[in-house]
Each structure stands twice: as C-alpha cells, then as structure tokens.
Amino acid sequence: MKYLVTYDSAYGNTARIADVISSSLSEYGKTAMKQLEDVTDKDVKHADLIVIGSPTQGGRPTGPTLQFIEALPAKVMRGKKIAVFDTRFDMEAQKFGLRILMRTIGYAATKMASAAKRRGWDVISRPMGFIVNDTKGPLRDGETERAARWASDLAHV
Ligand SMILES: Cc1cc2nc3c(=O)[nH]c(=O)nc-3n(C[C@H](O)[C@H](O)[C@H](O)COP(=O)(O)O)c2cc1C
Predict the structure, then answer these.
(1) 99-133 b/e with 16+ CB inside 10 Å = b?
(2) pTM for this structure?
C-alpha cells in the first residue's frame, strides 16, 4: 500500500498528529506527508490510502480542507480509500454551556467524512478526533500514541 497523509493546521497540533500517523504508516508502505496546499494530483494518484487531517474550528474543518476533499479529481479516485481525523477540545472538560454548544455544532472529522462520502469516496474508518488542551495546544498526553495506534489500524483495514 502507498499512503498520502495531508493536513491543515493553524498552530501545529494537527501537523504533529499527521507526522505521527505518517511515521506509523511508513512501517507498512511508502508514505508521503504534505500540507494540503502542496498536494498535487500526482500525489493523490500515487496513493492507495489518503489520510486527511484538520483542526476543528467552529465545529467544522478549515475551508481549505473541505475544498480539498471536494476537489479530489474523480478520475484518479477510483479504488482509493480515505480516512479523516481532526484535532479538537475535549467536550467533557468544558463548562456546561460550551459542552452543549460543542455537541450541537459537532466536529471537523464528521463533516470531512460526510463530504467525502457525498462525493462517493471510500471512507474506511470512523472519523477520529485527537484532543488538544487549549487552542494552541499542547496535545493531551497520550494522543500521539493513540494516533500511532489508529494509523496502524488503518494499515490493517
Ligand atoms: C477559531 C477557532 C475555532 C475553534 N472552534 C472549535 C470548536 O468548535 N470545537 C473544538 O473542539 N475546538 C475548537 N477550536 C480549537 C481547535 O480545534 C484547536 O485550536 C486545534 O485543534 C489546534 O490544532 P492546530 O494546532 O492544528 O491548529 C477552535 C479554535 C479556533 C482557533
């Protein structure tokens, strides 16, 4: 299998998770990691599994993330698989009002998976979220290890 891991990131936390996922996948096959804006059609063409990550902002992925998913060219997507993840706050750690708001507006990865499925792409894993302790990070303890395990699971789907 060949893997492409791509991400958007405002403060580096999603990039860090993408890096861990990429290292983990590289144990199973040729792996490239690129920021969304640097990904070419050729990169997509060469990958069997495309892993896409975004920070959750206002319950959604970033604009470039959604545009990337929506612009994936149908002619090169046949037979390819997709997995999506986001970074986000821990809902349970928030005060009641914010918890309700977060539950209502949801998370980036769910919307990324929906957008990919709407276009007909084969999304092979449930949308995954990794927790940051604050807006700029850091990632919660244990999240990079969890990301490595998730990537290894993806390689075995
Ligand atoms: C404008 C903005 C809106 C945000 N909205 C949410 C949100 O709705 N839900 C949530 O869990 N986290 C929210 N966050 C926290 C981000 O998810 C967090 O900053 C991000 O995971 C950090 O990843 P990054 O370093 O890759 O940008 C928001 C952050 C920003 C800057």
Answers:
(1) eeebeeebbbbbbbbebbeeeebebebebbbbbbe
(2) 0.97
